[in-house]
Write the structure tokens for this entry.
Amino acid sequence: MLTKKLEARHLSCIRDERVLFSELNFVLTSGQVLLIEGANGAGKTSLLRILTGFRKPDDGDLFWDNLLIDDTQDFYQDTAYIGHNNGLKDTLTAEENLRYAQALASITATIDDALEQVGLNGYQDTLVRFMSAGQRRRLALARLLCTHKPLWILDEPFTSLDRASIKLFEQFITAHVMQGGLVIMTSHHDTKLPSSLVQKIHL
Amino acid sequence: MKHSSLFQAFGAVIKRDLLLAYRHRAELINPLAFFVMVITLFPLALGAEIALLKRIAPAIIWVAALLASLMSIENLFRADYDDGSLELMVMTPHSLSVLVLAKVTAHWLLSSVPLLCIAPLMGLMLHMNSDVIGVLLLTLLLGMPVLSLIGGIAVALTLGLRKGGALLAILVLPLYVPILIFASSAVDAAMSGFPISGHLSMMSAILFLAITLTPLPTAAALKISLS
């Protein structure tokens, strides 16, 4: 995988005349995790929405591979996002959801492999409606595994996961980063990710 | 590694929406039932005045089709917005306008095509001549995609509002007026035996303008709704 770089210069976000953060600078390169910490309402999700390009920063710029992220098309080629909602369709099966995701991106692994990796083998033909919150979260992770996306942006990825699933999630994040991926995530939980890979921002 | 082409993505969006509609078959009937019921009520209310009914039949069918389309358009992006899959659709390397066009195409297939199939029957019920029914179908074929395309802009704009229904109607109905005027005057002309090629050319022009231009503001409005 080629080395990629995400750089933020002088980012600031103002909401309802309250400054959530300003003069935020960071550089994230391949093989690193950016962990965003902060109390409730500190602006973690706002920062993530700026990084995904959904929201324009009130000041500052973002660069992907030294190019200003302005036209987001090239950036989205490389970016995957799991938000508060998993982005899954309730009345489609696990396999149909992943097939749709693959049709919009580049494929790295087969659907069966991805489901096997997250421990959902045998759920191919189960409607998402009948899955538990934790299983949906794992299915969303399978979506990251079966599409080629160097940059993962994860908003509270560990919500509604049990301890074993959190460990599994952390393993995949570590493996992804080891292979030259980049991960940006927010989390309330203490993560057991190797500290040599992790860069922290406290809002 | 296999990259997905724009064409593939376009197909995947349509296929997914058709599959979702198939899983919610009951909801598919609503606009169709509405269309049939509204039209059926007119002969009952007007009584046995065949000449009058014949005269206003095209207008009845067009207004009913327009309201049925308005009824179903609200769901175009709502479910995707609520479950987060709209965010994923925006975050693809493909042009959002093209994917929007795919969603509108799926909506047209699901909401307008059933109406087109049942419209001749409604025409017969209202004592329309068969050649006038043909013209009516032609105007519906050219006009209904425009309704879906224009409706898409308004739906995307009102997505952030919890109860956007009334606002949506206020935004959209004035924009539906030109297509309604051209369609009904085309059918009028056909009934009086005048040539209709002018009206149909105008409607085709509006259709192609709508196909090329409306996905751009719709995509922009979707991005605004997500920010």
In short: Residues 163-178 of chain A form the longest helix (16 residues). The interface with chain B takes residues 49, 52-56, 73-74, 76-77, 79-81, 83-92, 96, 99-108, 148 of chain A (CB under 8 Å). Helices of chain A lie at 44-51, 73-77, 94-103, 111-117, 133-146, 163-178.
